[in-house]
Design a protein that fits this description.
The protein is mostly helical and 149 residues long. 91% of the residues lie in helices and 0% in strands. The chain is built from 2 helices and no strands. The two termini are 32 Å apart.
Length: 149
Amino acid sequence: MKPFKYKLSSVLKLREFEKQKIENQLSVLNKEILEINQQILNLQQSILNLQSNLNQAGENGNLDLGMIKYFPEFLSASEKEIANLTEELEVKQSEREKTLKLLDESMAKVKILENDKIRKQKSYKFKRQKKENLDIEDMQIILRGRGSA
């Protein structure tokens, strides 16, 4: 009997490739989301550091007029940058949700074919075992027939 060959193996490989491609897209999106979050945190930390420096300079009496003029502009620019990054983060998170749905669908398609392959392999093994058993029985009948003659 011929060895088992799954007729849809090329389709299964294609679907696994598509699944891998989607997983790669998801990892890129996750990395971008983490980077944006880190940028937001860095901007917030720099605002807090500048506020702290201004407060310390005021307490020490070393308050620089240039620093006072610079702070509102820095604060405004930083807030705009945070707002832009937040919008970009929302877009990336939306893309991530869509990619997760695509990944779920892709995984389901792969799982269907994998289950079909397993089912057909079991059926093939059962038929092969049945044929081997019949061949053994035929050989035993032939051997018994020769032994009695």
